[in-house]
Specification:
DUF305_CopM-like; Ferritin-like; DUF305 domain-containing protein; mainly alpha; about 120 residues; signal
Length: about 120
């Protein structure tokens, strides 16, 4: 896949992500979206879980702590979506590499955020 096609695919994913988090999407009749693949269903489930977890988050009033707390479910959603792509059976080398890179980077960042929260819990 060319760089342009990869950029287009990433743009489509980002646009979908933004759409699915909009208030208008919450009010849409999802039955009219057509058949979704198991991977697409997993993407939606990951975003729904992230949204639920983030909305349930108890804010501390501390910008750093709140940022770290909110980023953990956000990053976990990216991991879950990347894993769903890898499990989809589609074998695009660029998206496969991107998915693996996302998993590695987001897991590292989640570990950092959890460590930061432990060190800074009382601040």
């Amino acid at each position: 896949m060319s760089t342009a096609k990869t950029r287009a695919a990433v743009l489509a994913l980002v646009t979908s992500f933004a759409l699915f988090h909009s208030p208008a999407f919450a009010q849409m009749d999802h039955s009219k979206m057509g058949e979704m693949s198991p991977a697409s269903t997993a993407y939606m489930q990951a975003m729904t879980k992230m949204d639920t977890d983030m909305k349930a988050m108890q804010m501390t009033g501390k910008p750093g702590a709140d940022f770290a707390l909110m980023m953990i479910p956000h990053h976990q959603s990216a991991i879950d979506m990347a894993k769903a792509y890898l499990e989809s059976g589609e074998n695009d080398p660029e998206l496969t590499k991107l998915s693996r890179d996302i998993i590695a980077a987001q897991e590292k960042e989640i570990a950092f955020l959890k460590g930061w929260l432990e060190k800074n819990a009382g601040k």
